[in-house]
Amino acid sequence: MAVTETGDDDVPAERHRRPAGVGDTTVEAVGKLSEAFEIAERARGHLYAFHQLTGRADFALGWAVTLLREAGHDQLADRITADLIGRNVLEGRWTFQVVEEYDDGYYSLFREIERDVREELLQGRRHVYEAEMKEARRTHGRPGHEARPQANS
Prior knowledge:
It is a single chain. The chain is mainly alpha-helical. It has helices at residues 24-70, 74-83, 95-122, 128-137. Helix 1 (24-70) runs antiparallel to helix 2. It starts with 23 loop residues before the first helix and ends in a 16-residue tail after the last helix.
């Protein structure tokens, strides 16, 4: 569903309109690729949460060891200290290394490919599919249904 230039301020910004000659299937395909990348972004966020939560758990273990020692349970405290505190979460890796490996490998390549596809097929424009969905779903002329903020016209 291509949006044509009408002179009306109530149309999507140029950066959200499909370039001339780009077909529906191409817009949908790039939209699906962008959706896939957004899912990978969420996975990356969960990976950072895993990193932070695992670190917090390790520090909480330290506090538990302190309390176990105060309560006279040195043998249990020693086991936790020797076997669990500071332990790798994966072979040879703490969570920061897992995050770095994900960022530098899979995530970095995914981001590059998504950007390259948008550049090649949509002149680098982002969210064209979503902008067209918005145009199809909004009630033109109604408050709260504007195509874009008026300050960014």
